[in-house]
Amino acid sequence: MSSALREIALADLPGLRARHPRQFRLLTPGRLRAVAALLAVAALLALGLWRMEIEPARLLTGIGQLLHFLRLMLPPDPGGWAQLRMMLQGLAETLAIAFLGTLLAALLAFPLGFLAARNATLHGVVRFASRRLLDGIRGVDALIWALIWIGIVGLGPFAGVLAIATADIGTFGKLFSETIEAADRRPDEGVTAAGGGGPHRIRFAVLPQVLPVMAGHVLYLFESNTRSSTIIGIVGAGGIGLQLAEMIRTLEWQAVAFILVLILLVVAAIDALSGRLRAAIMGRGEEPRA
Amino acid sequence: MPVKPSRLPPARLAPLAGAYAAVQRNRRQRLLLALGVLTALTFLSAWVAQVDLPRLLTHISRFFGYFDRLLTLEGGDAAGQRVWTDPGEWFWGLHRWLPLLADTVLMAAVGTLLGTAAGAALGFASAGNMVRNPWLRHAAKRLLEFCRTVPEIVFALIFVLAFGLGPFPGVLAIAVHSLGGLGKQFSEAVENIDMKPVEGAIAAGAAWPAMVCFGALPQVLPSLASYALLRFEINVRGASVLGFVGAGGIGQDLLEAIRKFHYSDVSALLVLIIATVVVIDLLTGRLRARLAGMERAA
User: Fold this and answer.
1) Contacts of B62 in chain A (CB under 8 A)
2) B39 plus B124 within the same structural domain
3) N or C: which end of chain B has fewer CB within 10 A?
4) Which residues form the ABC transmembrane type-1 domain (chain B) (predicted)?
């Protein structure tokens, strides 16, 4: 039956074309836009390839090298008990840096978040200033902050804690202020109607709504900081990054693989733990509404 | 006649009040326990991380002094003045820094593009509603997890050894690390699509590529583009430090300026990086708002 329909349609093709010109147009605006986007992407790639001086020969030798490294990585091996102890100590430092840095940043960013939120700030100028301050802090990578703090408190994990804390104040401030701005206005109006002033409104209307969400943000950033604090040792700010960079530079590939496996395991464990904690907190946050 | 407020008789009120008090006590105890655990963990971490508060307090003035020196010119006629009194002297290296900055942005752009393409492929491969084969799905998921967890600067360190110094290993490192993050977001977006167009495509006889192309891809394309733009902004920031390990971009100059204590150079470079990030943040933010509008209209 369908082939018969097809015959009829094919026989009437000129008529169909005349009656539905839009369906037969080759260049629809949507297609033009897609082609333009693809061309832009291709031009960007070509520019990149030209600027990066990527030659096929270099690519091939590089990939060969990578495969060679990969073969040398197996099996992962710490290379002796002394090294294993140092790695575990580095890992503990990494976790401590992530934990303390996140906590410190959250505490410092808490008031800043209120100042940067439209519905809780003191004045428009204060809001603008605190927003720009947070933007500026966020624009600088944690590794740069680490270099700056090393100049002040010296090499070691303490500089890492301070670096993670400073870098995260910007992120936390932004997330917190967005959470506060998204809070439901009705409890706020209720407290005002019952005669509550500014502090009352924040304590009884805003905080109960935003605290569980903020705790979720804190846990999420703790997960992400566990990852960033693994590398902060590359510039000498404590943690397992120092050993990792050292092993890569001295081409100890088995030890590199061992450290990478350790990091993967710890990050997976932290993710699972904080995922469960977050679910528990979110569940409790919904309790009053039910 | 005024209504007399009615109260429960004490015999019935007492158990209710008792139950309320018990619930409150329970909550308070859990809160105290959580605070106790948090405090213990804090002290443990402080001990492991060699936190030295007296040291911080004695040297904290150096932190603010550092910013003071960052904003003071060193060379030229205006040495000792604030940096903004002589922008020409402050940004003396602009002719060298601007191409490096453009390189950094280009590295981030190309890396994000490559990462988006690979991440989209792997994201589809790890989505439960697209791929029935559990082995393929698990393999894709583990690969994404690995790429996401290993930081890009570690990839950069390894790639610099394999491919030599320069921006190319940086691009690869950005691509590999962002494909991990993007792949996960994509696969979650794909798992949340409406399956009716997919079933329609299969019923009309579409093979797997056609089904993905006509049934699934149009639904996730806006969110895919939105995630990629967000990632681009993150990658510009990341690319600015890849030069620390010799993987191209402006990071090399920044590291040198910090290590050699060329304070006004450090502040000039930081200002350039922050301005670039803010501009890209604004541009991608606008594009993403438009994409969100498209998504709602679709």
Assistant:
1) 151-152
2) no
3) N
4) 101-284
In a domain, residue B93? The reply is yes
Is A286 within 8 Å of chain B by CB?
A: no
A86 in B contact zone (CB under 8 Å): no
Give dist(CA B139, CA A149) in Å, integer. 41
Domain region containing B229: 88-297
**What pLDDT band is residue B173 in, cutting at 50, 70 and 90?**
very high
**Chain-chain contact of A234 with B171 (C-beta, under 8 angstroms):** no
Structure tokens of B277?
């990030």
Q: CATH no. for residue B248?
A: 1.10.3720.10
Q: Give start-end residues of each CATH 1.10.3720.10 domain in chain A.
A: 81-289
Interface contact flag, B168 A157, Cβ < 8 Å: no
Q: Which of the 8 DSSP states describes residue A206?
A: I
Q: Does ipTM come in above 0.95? A: no
Instruction: Give the one of A48, A69, A244 whose C-beta lies nearest to B110's C-beta.
Output: A48
Query: b/e string for B191-226 if b means 16 or more Cβ within 10 A?
Result: eebeeeebeebeeeebeeeebbeebbeebbbbbbbb
At B102-124, the pLDDT tens digits run 889 999 999 999 999 999 999 88
Q: Answer yes or no: is B1 within a domain.
A: no
Reported as a single tens digit per residue, the pLDDT across A174-215 is 888 888 888 788 888 888 888 887 788 888 888 888 888 888
CB-count exposure of residue B35 (10 Å: 0-12, 13-18, 19+): exposed
Is residue B55 in some structural domain? no
Domain shared by B128 and B249, yes or no: yes
| Together in a domain, B162 and B40 | no
Which residues in chain A are contacts of B107 at CB distance < 8 A?
48, 52
DSSP B53-84: HHHHHHHHHHHHHHHHHHTB--SSTTTTSBGG
Residue range A81-289 in CATH 3.50.50.60: no
